[in-house]
Design a protein that fits this description.
The complex is a heterotrimer of chains A (415), B (337) and C (356). By secondary structure, chain A is of the alpha/beta class. Chain A contains 14 helices and 15 strands. Chain A has two domains: 204 residues, 3-Layer(aba) Sandwich (Rossmann fold), CATH 3.40.50.2300; 160 residues, Rossmann fold. In chain A, strands 2-3-1-4-5-6 form a six-stranded mixed sheet. In chain A, strands 11, 12, 13, 14 and 15 form a five-stranded antiparallel sheet that branches. In chain A, strands 8-7-9-10 form a four-stranded parallel sheet, covered by helices on one side. In chain A, helix 12 packs across helix 13. The N terminus of chain A is likely disordered. With 337 residues, chain B is mostly helical. Chain B has a domain of 209 residues. Chain B has 14 helices and two strands, in the order αααααααββααααααα. With 356 residues, chain C is mostly helical. Chain C has one domain: ABC transporter involved in vitamin B12 uptake, BtuC (Orthogonal Bundle), CATH 1.10.3470. In chain C, strands 1-4 form a two-stranded antiparallel ribbon. A two-stranded antiparallel sheet of chain C has the order 2-3. In chain C, helix 3 packs antiparallel against helix 10 and helix 8 crosses helix 10. The chains are: A alpha/beta (415), B mainly alpha (337), C mainly alpha (356). At the A-C interface, helix 1, strand 3, helix 3 and helix 4 of A face helix 2, helix 3, helix 6, helix 12 and helix 14 of C. Chain C: Its main location: membrane. Chain C: InterPro entries: ABC_transp_permease, LivM-like. Chain C: It is a multi-pass membrane protein.
């Protein structure tokens, strides 16, 4: 029992410390990302985005110094809430930036509702319902979400590529559902088909796609593939190995730089695969180029080009700092003025103008890209077109959009 | 074999019929009603082949696990980490030298050495303490997973095997006959067939090693009665080290094979540990034949589950495990209860 | 077996050590000086994790059966709470009254635990750890994949305790006391149970199953009943866990978390029911404050190393370590006495965990 006394004494000492009170003029900002587990690399890049924004403002906004406190989750919603609770209740941060992934985002939104005096800005999480259904008054998302990312891709596949019937291969959880929805909704409205029995939902983390590849139908024009990371790499290799010859259409993270540049065989057959997303590595625009240059200068050991995680964290952090400047660092009265400033904010980002709608979700530009073979033989994404100012309801009214229903395996039915 | 037919005539006939039916389903051109019931033949045959080849991979991983347990009663829950370590080391070597086979050999050796170190430095000190050994392997696997994440990050790695191993081959199996009368043959990735061939070769090699060599006989004697083997003057510790080296080395070897067939990424350690566990629980802990049978069953169950009812694939695997435990707690081929 | 004699243990107030009283006063008074964060996320969460780890300590320490599926059992109870009660996801949520939901969830968890026990105890002891690990992993994959019942990858949110007697039980202070009552209740029950006929029988089976079988004990049944009781402890822990998080998703029952429970029990010490709680406090403090001290990135390395060191050098965990240190201080040079001292301190465990 004696041991207990010591442990308890230690706890006692810690308990009495209470939330560290910041110097009166400082503003405490918490940033939450996955700094442990398999997504560590992505979380670190998200943190680079936060730091990049802070460096741009010299860690000062609205005349006050900004103190950054970091929190880490392992990508599970439980750990995200525990980490954000520590930031808010123990470290006493007034603004939270984060989290990284969709299910974490939903959990943090729920937590935000219990902390009305703290303002939350999204990191890079991209689940639809974080802002679409029962949003939190104090949760802002200046980055776009999974369905928005697909803007223009359905039209492009139907009109330019001439596809009429597509099969779907995607991981079996909410983010790919959202992407499939964002792609099929316009594609089917134009008259395209994607029968329910030609949609294949594989468990996330599945490595062996050969049986699924064998089950893919022959009578379709293309396959829409929404897989990410290792799953995408595995599928592409195995598809090539088994002699597959149908053209592909990619989700936002299916043919991104991390997949194209993964260690191993070159995958020349993906040349010509269209895709869409919130960033495009090769966008020939001074704003983007400047951003990439700043990123490279600040983080020589980072990625060759900022990932969409760094980009999203950067934009959300920058929004917070700009709004702080506008209200001169006034966070009194439950941060009321600060939130008003955020709601009315419209600013220039490396990827175009960004503002938020009435549910505090971003309206921003989306990039339509296609995989090409670069001059040195490397595969890269070429920007085909910029879809300007895409909103969360994809151009229709909020009520009409809700009628489409929750994203899922069979939405839209499209047969 | 003859014994089996005499004793279980009924089951022998059933088994024969099932085999004949499968062969017919593989080689015949499917009539329409069969396509109606099972979907296209291409899907069925491919899934069957995938199941068998995945079973081959599982056998490679699980054989080392079961070998170590059989002799030392050591449930090595770091076996998955050894698989992943082998894959990473093999990748580094293959990438730098450009020689895939060299990667394979170095992975086997390096992981075998790590196994020897574990046996000499840790497990020898806690012999006859099964549970503590197992807890130690859990600790090692936590640390190893994090260390590998630190070194190789979360990136996905894929091997570049020689070109003749990569690509698809036409199998002499007709998929469908087109209206024009031309037969369409089934295409299948060459490397997966190579995996199966390697697994069969390793299986036969292990069998010969265990049954036809002096050391193999010592090992089998040790499996039956460790104390008695020691009493006959054999240096049991040396035999232990050798078996640990082979078992661990097989895990590393399987890492390169599996990493080439699929890919290498964090989390694979748990996946292959689970596969090994289920395979040996079903097949019987400590039995090489059991590992082969278990690997085949689990590989087929997983692939048919994925192709025909993806959501419940895991449950199928798990159900097989529970049924086997309920009917034969020692596993299908397990000798001891 | 005569059911009346099953739990006829002896328990006397005279045995209570002064440090127990101090601890009790501290635990009760804790919310009066700690902040909400410390009451809820450190205090209550440690008690919940400790309760779940206690269910493992019971099986492993007294029965020699190391089950990695205790978190899975707790997780099933958590899921049942969301499925049978209310949640905000629009999937399942049958809306049963809270007391019925709690009872059915805990019983469901206990039955699941019994089932795991029935499957694993028929085999050799070392099989247990493998089978329970396989069960834990399979359950994780299944809930992640099943949308009809478990709402797959997303899981459930909006699971809350009822407002009862005008108190919202998820507020830090009420929730802390709720967790404390549960933890202390099970702590006392397990301590009592260890001295009962049933508990002594279980320990005897751990040390020598063959002899116990010869004495006429139904060894298998005895072990399965132990699984049932540990299932109740874990199930209640799971109910508290879902109320604490307000949500349950596959990540809640992941393999890494299941192993964390083992780490907590082993690091705390498996010879006395206080061990799991010590382990839980250490773990929760580390989990929350490691990021302020070290690079969070290598958190798992720290946890793994602590676990490995304990298994290698102090098989009885922090508790054993403390006992050893204290004995060395008090009875320096007198090995005989110190050995006696250790035994007197832990009347519950006549043999060590490793003897199984």
């Amino acid at each position: 029992m004696g041991k207990l006394k010591h442990v308890l004494a230690a706890t006692l000492a810690l308990s009495l410390a209470g939330p560290a009170i910041a110097a009166a003029d400082d503003i405490k900002m918490g940033a939450l990302a996955t700094l442990e587990g398999a997504f560590t690399v992505l979380g670190e890049d998200g943190m680079r985005g936060v730091k990049l924004a802070l460096q741009e403002f010299d860690y000062t906004a609205g005349g006050k110094k900004i103190e950054l406190v970091t929190g880490s989750s392992d990508a599970s919603p439980d750990s995200a809430v525990r980490a954000v609770r520590k930031l808010v209740e123990q470290d006493g941060v007034q603004i939270v930036i984060g989290p990284l992934s969709g299910s974490e985002g939903l959990a943090v939104k729920d937590y935000a509702k219990t902390q009305p005096n703290v303002t939350f800005l999204n990191g890079s999480s991209a689940a639809q319902d974080t802002t679409l259904r029962s949003p939190a008054e104090n949760f802002f998302r200046f980055s776009t979400e999974g369905a928005q990312w697909m803007a223009g891709l359905g039209e492009y596949a139907y009109n330019e590529k001439g596809y009429r019937k597509v099969a779907v291969l995607a991981e079996d959880y909410s983010f790919p559902y959202t992407q499939v929805f964002g792609f099929l909704e316009p594609f089917c409205r134009l008259g395209g088909k994607s029968p329910i029995d030609a949609r294949f939902w594989v468990p996330i983390g599945n490595k062996d796609y050969s049986s699924v590849i064998a089950a893919l139908p022959d009578d379709v024009d293309a396959i829409f593939v929404a897989l990410g990371g290792a799953d995408a790499v595995n599928f592409l290799t195995q598809y090539e190995q088994s002699g597959g010859d149908l053209p592909l259409i990619g989700g936002s993270i299916t043919v991104d730089q991390s997949v194209l540049g993964s260690k191993g065989k070159a995958r020349s057959f993906v040349v010509g695969t269209p895709s869409a997303g919130p960033v495009s590595d090769t966008w020939d625009d001074p704003r983007w180029k400047e951003f990439v240059a700043a990123y490279k200068k600040a983080f020589p050991d980072g990625f060759p080009s900022p990932s969409l995680f760094a980009h999203a964290y950067y934009i959300n952090s920058k929004a917070a700092l700009l709004a702080l400047n506008e209200v001169n660092g006034d966070l009194s009265d439950g941060e009321k003025k600060f939130r008003e400033a955020l709601s009315n904010l419209s600013f220039e980002t490396p990827t175009g103008m960004v503002s938020v709608d009435e549910r505090r979700n971003a309206i921003a530009d989306i990039f339509l890209t296609e995989v090409i073979e670069g001059p040195d033989g490397n595969l890269m994404n070429k920007t085909i077109k910029v879809i300007p100012q895409v909103n969360q309801t994809l151009g229709v009214s909020y009520d009409k959009f809700l009628e489409y229903g929750q994203v899922g395996r069979e939405n839209p039915s499209c047969s | 074999m003859r014994n089996f037919i005499e004793r279980h005539t009924f089951w022998a006939i059933v088994l024969l019929l099932v085999v004949v039916l499968f062969l017919w389903m593989i080689f015949a051109v499917w009539p329409d009603w069969l396509v109606e019931a099972f979907g296209r033949k291409k899907t069925f045959v491919n899934t069957l082949l995938n199941g068998v080849t995945l079973g081959g991979l599982y056998f490679l991983v699980a054989s080392g696990f079961t070998l170590i347990f059989g002799l030392m009663r050591n449930v090595n829950l770091a076996h998955g980490s050894m698989y992943l370590l082998g894959a990473y080391i093999g990748y580094e070597v293959a990438d730098r030298t450009g020689n895939w086979f060299l990667g394979l050999a170095v992975a086997f050796l390096a992981v075998a050495i790590s196994g020897v170190l574990l046996q000499v430095l840790i497990f020898r000190r806690m012999a006859n303490d099964d549970l503590r050994q197992t807890l130690v392997t859990i600790g090692i696997s936590i640390i190893a997973a994090d260390a590998m994440l630190a070194i190789w990050t979360g990136t996905t790695y894929q091997f570049s095997p020689p070109d003749w191993l990569f690509g698809a081959a036409d199998l002499p199996i007709i998929s469908v006959i087109k209206s024009s009368g031309a037969a369409v043959y089934i295409k299948y990735p060459v490397f997966r067939l190579v995996v199966l061939a390697i697994a069969v070769a390793v299986g036969i090699g292990l069998w010969i090693f265990l049954n036809r060599t002096r050391i193999g006989m010592m090992i089998r004697a040790g499996v039956n009665d460790r104390e008695m083997l020691a009493a006959t003057g054999v240096n049991v510790q040396l035999v232990f080290v050798l078996v640990f080296a082979i078992g661990a080395g097989l895990a590393g070897f399987a890492g390169v094979i599996g990493g080439t067939a699929l890919s290498v990424a964090p989390g694979e350690d748990i996946r292959y540990l689970l596969a090994s566990l289920v395979v040996v629980i079903v097949g019987g802990l400590g039995s090489i034949t059991g590992a082969a049978v278990g690997a085949l069953i689990i590989g087929l169950a997983e692939q048919f589950g994925l192709a025909y009812f993806p959501t419940y694939g895991v449950v199928l695997t798990f159900l097989i495990m529970v049924v086997v435990l309920a009917v034969r707690p020692q596993g299908l081929m397990g000798g001891r209860g | 077996m005569d059911s009346r004699r099953l739990f006829s243990g002896s328990f006397s107030l005279k045995n209570i050590h002064p440090s127990v009283l101090i601890t009790a006063v501290f635990l009760v008074a804790y919310p009066s000086f700690a902040t909400d964060f410390f009451i809820f996320q450190i205090g209550a969460y440690s008690l919940i994790l400790g309760t779940i780890a206690l269910s493992l300590m019971m099986l492993a320490g007294y029965g020699g059966m190391v089950s990695l599926a205790q978190l899975t059992v707790a997780g099933l109870a958590a899921y049942l709470m969301a499925i049978l009660g209310d949640n905000s996801m629009g999937v399942m949520g049958l809306g049963w009254p809270w007391w019925l939901t709690v009872i059915v969830s805990v019983l469901g968890a206990a039955l699941f635990s019994t089932f795991i026990g029935a499957v694993s105890v028929r085999t050799e002891g070392i099989y247990t750890i493998m089978i329970t690990l396989a069960v834990a992993v399979a359950f994780f994959y299944f809930v992640r994949q099943n949308y009809v019942l478990f709402n797959g990858f997303t899981g459930f949110a909006g699971v809350e305790p009822p407002t009862l007697f005008g108190v919202y039980w998820r507020d830090p202070v009420p929730f802390y006391y709720l967790s404390l009552v549960v933890a202390v209740g099970f702590f006392a029950a397990v301590s009592y149970c260890a001295r009962s006929t049933f508990g002594l029988g279980l320990q005897a089976i751990r040390d020598n199953p063959r002899r116990m079988r010869a004495l006429g004990y139904n060894v298998t049944l005895h072990r399965i009943v132990a699984y049932f009781f540990s299932g109740i402890v874990a199930g209640v822990g799971g109910v508290l866990l879902v109320w604490f998080n307000g949500r349950v998703s596959p990540g809640t029952v992941g393999v890494d978390v299941a192993i964390d429970i083992l780490v907590i029990a082993v690091v705390g010490g498996m010879r006395h029911p206080i061990g799991p709680f010590l382990g839980a406090i250490a773990f929760v403090l580390l989990e929350n404050f490691a990021i302020d001290l070290i690079d969070r990135e290598r958190f798992n390395m720290v946890i793994g190393a602590a676990f490995l060191l304990v298994v290698l050098f102090s098989p009885d965990g922090l508790l054993g370590l403390w006992n050893r240190v204290r004995d060395r201080l008090r009875f320096r040079g007198n090995a005989q006495l110190s050995a006696e001292r250790v035994n007197k301190d832990d009347p519950a465990s006549s043999g060590s965990l490793e003897k199984s």
